[in-house]
Fold this sequence. Notes:
alpha+beta; 3-stranded antiparallel beta sheet; 10 helices; 19 strands; 27% strand; disordered N terminus
Amino acid sequence: MAAIRNIMNQSLFYRFAIAFFSVALTLVTLDACLAKSALIKRSQMLMGTVVFVTAVGADERSAQRAVKAGLDEIRRLEELLSTWISTSELSKVNAAAGRESIRVSQETFEVLRRSLEMAQLTQGGFNVAVGPAVKAWDASGEGQVPSQEDLEALRPQMDLSNMQLDEKTQSVRLRRPGMSIDVGGIGKGYAADLAAKVMQASGATAGVVALSGDIKTFGRMPDQQRFVFGIQHPRKEQGEVLGRIELEDEAVSTAGDYQRYFMKDGVRYHHILDPATLLPARGCQSVTVIAKDGVMADGLDTGIFVMGPDKGMALIESLPDVEGVIVDQEGTVFVSSGLRNRLSLDP
Length: 347
């Protein structure tokens, strides 16, 4: 264990600094120029991460109302989806594994339905049941290399065919005892989508919702400027970007092997596991996906990371309103065709 050194000790704020401060820079400039528009920014710890919400409104009251509505919505969804809350719907589903079906809300059912859709799109690369293997590696903690025998013992718990969704009764059943579902790889994007909707309904004319690097934007600034997002370089210091892109009514999400990992004997072991091997996926350093909604961007980035650059980019090109940037294991950057004129790569 002494040979294992945990690398990820940075503050949560640094994890999101690239996207948030790029957006903040644009907003601060606009706030100075457009006295009639009100801009409100708030952050709060929700869903196990620091959530940043920014709203632009016709006046301060409407902007404040929109920010509060966005944070309240994320808090409501946390009560449904967090596996760290024993009373959440997802915790109840997990507790009933192998025994009975659990009726859930429309939101929980939709997240799980979209999870199965993402699993199919990414040829199994995205899997909300892979949590037991992720826990065995403990890349977010001290880090350990489990034996293949131990990993294989966990495999039956990760078969998504054992997760049954009944649309008529809006219920979920995990057929295998010990099975557990964690929607951390898609739930934040879903929460960002719903938060953006309630913010708009509350009067925001433009805004940003950012959860752990999963970002949803809506609207343009009053001077027609778009929001700016910086893509973290996977092999440089925090804050050094690979490139920048402007977003409008879009979501962006990045999966990278630099986010949670540990080193042992010169080998990088990270938290993005290939469900087929239960080992860290080795084809990419990072994958950034831009899509119309956060649940799509959030669900695709991890699955594409597992698929690798060739299959992953082919999938991106086949999907409408989806673009992406893939950095392969050698550091080569691949940019989807619809993004080449929008992405500004740093030298």
